[in-house]
């Protein structure tokens, strides 16, 4: 059974940067796509970014394109979310997730993800 443990996050001023990490255990990490989602107070969980099993393909939510970068190190069973030029509207709890199925392209559909990290708070002050 796969387990995802997140680290990183915290409080940063607008314009600053943070990096989130998500370490996986329990199955073959390199065979599954990964995604990042976020949930702001009073809002539904929304897609942020996703990456294919090999790392060759990525997709992003429009509001983070050019500012956030998703990447992965399969040798370390870890996926990252580098967040630059942060804005107050990026404030949310961020979750990593792993795809339910092998060798699928990256997707923004949360139903395609079968396991989730514990969440980590990101707060951007203005």
Description:
The chain has 126 residues and is an all-beta fold. 0% of the residues lie in helices and 54% in strands. It has no helices and eleven strands. It has strands at 3-8, 10-13, 18-25, 32-39, 46-51, 58-60, 68-73, 78-83, 92-102, 113-116, 120-125. Strands 2, 4, 5, 6, 9, 10 and 11 form a seven-stranded mixed sheet that branches. A hairpin with a 4-residue loop joins strand 7 and strand 8 (78-83). It is globular, with a radius of gyration of 13 Å. The mean pLDDT is 96.
Helix/strand order, N-terminal first: EEEEEEEEEEE
> What percent of residues are in strands?
over 45%
Structural class: mainly beta
Round the Cα radius of gyration to an integer and report it: 13 Å
Key features?
single chain; mainly beta; globular; 7-stranded mixed beta sheet; 4-stranded antiparallel beta sheet; 126 residues; 0% helix
Write the layout of secondary structure elements.
Layout: E1 3-8, E2 10-13, E3 18-25, E4 32-39, E5 46-51, E6 58-60, E7 68-73, E8 78-83, E9 92-102, E10 113-116, E11 120-125
Parallel strand pairs: 2-11
Antiparallel strand pairs: 1-3, 3-8, 4-5, 4-9, 5-6, 7-8, 9-10, 9-11
Give a summary of the structure in a few sentences.
This protein has 126 residues and is mostly beta strands.
